[in-house]
Write a structure and sequence with these properties.
Elements (H helix, E strand, L loop, with lengths): L18 H32 L11 H31 L5 H34 L2 H31 L2
């Protein structure tokens, strides 16, 4: 009896599925996952780009301006990484490199999610720092950072490790 993953949508092949079909399915899956994040990243990124044009921008101290720059840069990186698989697919279309595109898309997705998490926490700290004392803004943003780490990284890694033990 061979081991079968619980998740039928995993990287393992389905019965009768060719390597090319699996690569196609995996690429479609990763694009769907990235679509979920893309809109949120673009909205937050767009908002941050308009912040310097607001009247209250002059009131920001150097710490707040640094947070704005960092959040904007993190979200620019997230946007770039999340859109990269589409660019790779377009450039490499019909070159029989779907497996390589899927592998690259996986790396881009992980990098994009990392940058997104950093951008969300930094943007949150900026917003909180404008309405509550700095120590509280840092504490609350830190709590959200821990939550993101737990939900996006620790929990799935623990689940994966549990599967490997079977």
């Amino acid at each position: 009896m061979t081991w079968q993953p619980e998740d039928p949508d995993s990287d393992y092949g389905r019965p009768g599925e060719t390597e090319q079909q699996r690569a196609d399915r995996n690429f479609i899956d990763i694009l769907q996952e990235l679509r979920v994040t893309q809109t949120g990243v673009q909205i937050l990124f767009g908002f941050l780009l308009t912040l310097p044009l607001q009247a209250r921008f002059a009131e920001l101290d150097n710490f707040d301006k640094a947070l704005l720059v960092l959040a904007t840069l993190f979200l620019a990186v997230a946007t770039t990484c999340i859109i990269a698989p589409v660019a790779w697919h377009r450039v490499l279309f019909r070159h029989r490199l779907k497996r390589e595109i899927v592998d690259a898309a996986n790396v881009f997705a992980k990098c994009g999610l990392t940058a997104l998490g950093l951008g969300v926490v930094t943007a949150l700290m900026l917003m909180l720092n404008l309405v509550v004392p700095r120590w509280l803004a840092v504490t609350l943003a830190g709590c959200v950072a821990v939550l993101i780490l737990l939900i996006w990284l620790v929990a799935p890694l623990r689940r994966r490790r549990g599967l490997a033990r079977r």
